[in-house]
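Hi team,

Below is the intake form for Thioesterase from Flavobacterium saliperosum S13. Please confirm the fields before the structure is written into the shared record.

FORM ID: S-0412
PROTEIN: Thioesterase
ORGANISM: Flavobacterium saliperosum S13
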Amino acid sequence: MSVFTKEISIRWSDLDPNFHMRHSAYYDFGAQHRIEILEQQGLTMRIMQQQHFGPVLFREECVFRKEIHMGDTITISTKMGKMKDDASRWTIVHELKNQLGQVCAVLSVDGAWIDTKLRKLASPTPEIAKEVMHAFPKTEDFILL
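The structure came back. Fields below:
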């Protein structure tokens, strides 16, 4: 698989007083897409709950390039930018493009897996998380950490 993509509908609630997409909506769309991808690949919320682990973010950054307005057709694509071989740490990159194929924003998140009982980083990385993360499409400049 080369990339995970999804078309996004811009809602009225996604806009700010300047009538373009508010900054925090970009982060919301990225978070939703990541969870949908994990679910689609078999790493469901139910499994994470049963095995007592989940994703945790250390850094989230968005570079805004073009405004997104109500009525725009936006596609979000998601790839793995960096990852340790054991999938214990990773960087996921989202690109949001408009109907003309122009990049409107690039969202990057650095994360890991947390043991939800111990409230510490999960060690070792749960097997299903390793499998799913290794199946992610990679960016052209992917780095194995």
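SUMMARY LINE: Helices lie at 23-40, 45-51, 127-135.

Thanks, M.
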